[in-house]
Amino acid sequence: MNKTTLVIFLLSSPFAFWAQDNCNVFLQNGDSCRYESCMYLENSPNYFQLTKEYHDIKDKALEICPEYAIVYKHKSTAYLKTGDFIGWKKLIDKAVELNPKENLDYRGWCRFQFFRDYEGAIKDIEALDKLVNHDIGFCQNGHYHLNIAKALCYKMLGQESHAIQIIEAQLTNDISSLGLYDYLHLGVLYLDQGNYSKAIENFKKQHQQNELTENYYYLALAYKQTKDFDAYKSMLAKAKQLYLEARIMQDIYTHHVDKIYLKDIENEIDRG
């Protein structure tokens, strides 16, 4: 995924301000309820999501049109920010009920990222895939295609072979959907299954995308298993160097699957 695409997805993250609908579309479709609510929002002041004024405006928009799904999504994000997960769930569930095509992706990704609700995330992603006849797109932080996120859910549920199948299929069918860490995760899956040649192959592909602490760390483990101890030590040293340079897998809100830490590297060096 190129940098321009990544910026677009980061701006549409669950903690960014959601884009406003084009109100004229509702008018053209004869939907006066959503049109009036949309226009009210368009002409209202912009407040920070965690302020009372922000929610007062959203609540007024829902008085105008209780069926306007995007307002529930707007409000749900603030609840997620403050850690009121029950409040978030009620609001995002309502948004999904009213407009599943536009909200299943967000709810599914949040289930994975924030709640580790892997089964719920899979359910939402697969439900979206059945509803639409176009590509289901990327997760909210822009790091993964939703199918890769689904594969990671299966990995965390212990279904590693199925996770490999999903990632391989996604990368074969649409290489343009390549995310930031896809080959790294695929390599770790093969490493866990004892297929060290495939693991090394995918870690090398990840190197072509970016240089990451995690990639060198797991590559070192693969070389250790193949008895290439010179490469093993070299990769571990590189992993530590990159960690100290903060060239790591990162998300500003949560920790990625397969993320490692300096202590992991130092413990492996001591064991080496």
Rg, Cα atoms, Å: 22 Å
| Number of helical stretches of at least 4 residues | 15
Biggest beta sheet summary: none
Averaging pLDDT over every residue, what do you get?
92
- Total E-strand runs: 0
Uncertain runs with pLDDT below 50, 5 residues or more?
A: 1-17
Please report the distance between the alpha carbons of the first and last residues.
36 Å
β-strand amount: under 5%
General form: elongated
Order of helices and strands: HHHHHHHHHHHHHHH
State the secondary-structure class. mainly alpha
What is the share of helical residues? 55-70%
Record the SSE blueprint.
Blueprint: H1 3-11, H2 23-28, H3 32-42, H4 52-64, H5 69-81, H6 85-98, H7 100-113, H8 118-131, H9 146-156, H10 160-173, H11 182-192, H12 196-209, H13 213-225, H14 229-244, H15 262-271
For the structure shown, list the relevant keywords.
single chain, 272 residues, mainly alpha, Serine Threonine Protein Phosphatase 5, Tetratricopeptide repeat, 15 helices, elongated, disordered N terminus
Can you walk me through this structure?
The chain is mainly alpha-helical. Among the domains are: 3-98, no CATH class; 181-271, Alpha Horseshoe (Serine Threonine Protein Phosphatase 5, Tetratricopeptide repeat), CATH 1.25.40.10. It is 67% helix and 0% strand. It has helices at 3-11, 23-28, 32-42, 52-64, 69-81, 85-98, 100-113, 118-131, 146-156, 160-173, 182-192, 196-209, 213-225, 229-244, 262-271. Helix 9 (146-156) runs antiparallel to helix 10, helix 11 packs parallel to helix 13 (213-225) and helix 14 packs antiparallel against helix 15 (262-271). The longest helix is centred in the last third of the chain and has 16 residues, at 229-244. Mean pLDDT is 92; it is low at 1-17.
